[in-house]
Amino acid sequence: MTHDFSYPKGTRHHKNSIRKEEFDLKTALKPEPVSTNLITFYQKHGFYDIMPSILNFASMTDLFPNKLRLKSNTNSNVELSRLQIACLISNIFLCQFLNPAHRIFKENPTNNVSKLQFEKMKFFKRYFEMLTKESFLEGSVKFHRVSVAHCPDWSSLKDKKIGPVTICLNEKIEDQNAAQLDFCNRRIGGGVLNHGAVQEEIMFLCRPECIASMLFTDPLDNNESLIIEGANIFSGYSGYRSALECQPLSKSMSNVSPTIIAIDALRFKEINSLYEFQITSIQRELNKAFAGFSMATTFNAFGNKEIATGHWGCGAFNGNKELKSIIQLLVASACDSSLIYCCFGEQKFYESFGRVHRRLTSKNVTIADLFHWTVKYVPKKVNHKSQTKALTLFDHIHTQITTVYGR
Fold this sequence. Notes:
Helix content is 33%, strand content 12%.
């Protein structure tokens, strides 16, 4: 089946300044040495003992004899040793890249450094402290760009049933022994090096080796995902956005580095945008999720078919939680994977998603049926004067189940 991979109307997207050449570390760095003012700033804020190690890692540019690139519209791979990644992260931290987007500070910091920026420095500090132990420099991290040429015809999957979901109220995605979804920006890493502090940025701060991908990954197209294997976790966290805080690692955290599946959702101009429910938008999100979920079995470090996820694209991107959960359920079912869906403490959603999933599975609803019901749903604005309650997507699905399969 031929698919249109262009962007639907009503979405916010940037026409790319697509990377035109491969990443060459030696030409990407400033010719001058690290700023002494920057070194002094870091030393005053707890980096005195580890600064010699950071400077040493940054100097190891000879570890990169070849140029790097995960090029748009290709299936391509980059594998880096942890020592190579330490070199890249050190130069990011020391603001040595010519491109301001690849520095932790766009300019040398002054007294105007924000609380969030100071908090982000703590994540880097834990990373560099642990690198002083040789065991943390062993092994490598693999980055796979996946470009999917053909996606399912969702309306034709009449023989495949809706698959299993484990719905978690309070557990975090990173606590699961499963492939973990990165709610990414199409430019990988999003705002991790500036003022961003939502799901992707937090994941990359806890696993700083992921940040290396920002240097050589072209922006993702609508049919593409990025798979990261082997990125170690160095920090825990609490809070979100301006309340983010770096925390020690939980003792319950698995020693296995999970496979990370990075897929970017559409960014809508407003919450509950009517454009989100148009078939072009729904199919785009299905195909985007398929580009990632279809790789979960191939690359899953835990040897299972589980994918840990949550409200993908429902924060800063203004997505509808019910729609995004159904889209992910459809795609996981098509890929014979099972979801672990983390509700971030939202009791109402936890209960309502559980009810609709139980009915879907108890009635053996097919992917084709659920797809048709989803694209037929038309959201309506709440009439506050008459106090009529808008019919949600979950309500609509319950109605369709009763109509087609009975109570």
